[in-house]
Design a protein that fits this description.
Blueprint: H1 7-24, H2 28-34, H3 39-47, H4 66-79, H5 81-101, H6 104-115, E1 120-124, E2 140-144, E3 147-158, E4 165-176, E5 182-190, E6 196-201, E7 212-223, H7 234-270, E8 272-273, E9 276-277, H8 282-310, H9 316-341, H10 351-359, H11 369-378
Parallel strand pairs: 1-4
Antiparallel strand pairs: 2-3, 3-7, 4-5, 6-7, 8-9
Length: 380
């Protein structure tokens, strides 16, 4: 058993950290205030190869692996969680679904722009009556001649409202099988396609720089060849990539938690009360120790899950454990970080207040904690 990080992975960590702390972190507060991620940040991440680490060079990737991709994600989230979410959408979810199930023409047309930072994307699954129960979706797609006609509404779709977004991958009901169960297919829908409208952008308590939108499809016609993968396994395809998305979410959580520890440790050594730094009080130093322990455990778990994925081995249990533990760990770490900072931690200008707001969504996206526990219990 070898826990040593390879030279390649260490190089990824150093390069991403350098970029994230120099370019992303200084703009984090401004991005949150403006509710916007500058397109040039996405372009730079693409040019540096961050988005396509786990994909072959022929499709715009760098030929690396998922361990490297998730180390990258941790460092980006350490600077800003919203920015790291772009890699979740463009790489772990939509990018991977295109790569695994798309035709050669679809990969060449749609995948490379995502991996090289020329475009962003949306993963359109969630609906008002379809959250954890993904099979309950109501959006429909009907084949008329050589076109699919899509009707329905999707909600909470991240990044599709960005000016450089090129497409969303949409799950829709295309029929019913012999047992009366819905047949769900997946489609590539260009952002500028007639019949698809971004009806509103939601206000959120955290991750405000990452736009989340409602999409309305009204007789939205797309070419027949925009069907992605097996017409009867669209939901299965979504669930496969969501498994990777859970490793991704865990890595993102670790990045934010590490940022909390960094800020809290610095503050505890500088802030004096009763004549000495508050770090000298066990009430504070023990919180910091617990943070460090929790972060290390979460980091080891997401790396193990990513390593298993790279080896082609089953990793449903490990990915679920990583996501569950890391997301719940993050809520505790961000809460303790605010507590250590006291009144200052409650102020908008203090980074830990943003980390605290951002953290809450991580127990919801890519599978709620309740759903993840169901998956884990089924594997016992």
């Amino acid at each position: 058993m070898d826990f040593e990080v390879s030279k390649e992975h260490e190089m990824i960590r150093k390069e991403v950290r350098r970029f994230a702390q120099k370019v992303i972190a200084p703009q984090a507060e401004e991005m949150e205030a403006n509710k916007n991620i500058p397109v040039n940040i996405v372009e730079q991440m693409g040019e540096l190869g961050f988005i396509g680490i786990a994909f072959p060079e022929e499709y715009g990737g760098t030929g690396g692996d998922w361990v490297g991709a998730h180390i990258c994600l941790e460092e980006l989230a350490r600077a800003d969680l919203a920015v790291s979410g772009i890699l979740d959408a463009s790489s772990s979810l939509v990018g991977q679904e295109l790569f695994m199930f798309g035709s050669e023409d679809q990969k060449k047309k749609w995948l490379a722009p995502l991996l090289t930072g020329q475009a962003t994307t949306g993963f359109a699954l969630t609906e008002s009556n379809c959250g954890s129960d993904a099979g309950a979706l109501e959006t429909t797609a009907v084949l008329e001649g050589n076109e699919w006609v899509i009707n329905g509404t999707k909600q909470f779709i991240s990044f599709i409202a960005m000016p450089n977004a090129s497409l969303c991958v949409v799950a829709a009901v295309t029929g019913v099988d012999k047992k009366g169960k819905k047949i769900i297919s997946t489609f590539i829908v260009p952002k500028d396609n007639p019949g698809m409208v971004i009806s509103k952008n939601y206000g959120k308590m955290g991750m405000k720089a990452a736009p989340a939108s409602e999409l309305i499809f009204t007789d939205c016609r797309i070419p027949e060849e925009n069907l992605l993968g097996d017409p009867e396994r669209g939901l299965a395809q979504h669930l496969i990539v969501l498994e990777t998305g859970r490793i991704t979410a865990a890595a993102m959580c670790v990045g934010v938690a590490q940022a909390c520890l960094d800020e809290s440790l610095k503050y505890a050594k500088e802030r004096t009360q009763f004549g000495q730094p508050i770090f000298n009080y066990q009430a504070v130093s023990f919180k910091l120790a617990d943070m460090a322990v929790s972060i290390e455990l979460a980091r080891n778990q997401y790396l193990k899950a990513a390593w298993l994925k790279d080896k082609g081995r089953p990793h449903t249990f490990e990915a679920s454990v990583a996501k569950l533990y890391a997301s719940e760990m993050l809520e505790k770490v961000t809460s303790d970080a605010v507590q250590i900072h006291g009144g200052s931690g409650y102020m908008d200008e203090c980074p830990v207040s943003r980390y605290y707001r951002d953290a809450r969504c991580m127990q919801i996206l890519e599978g709620t904690s309740e759903i993840i526990r169901i998956l884990i219990s089924r594997s016992l």
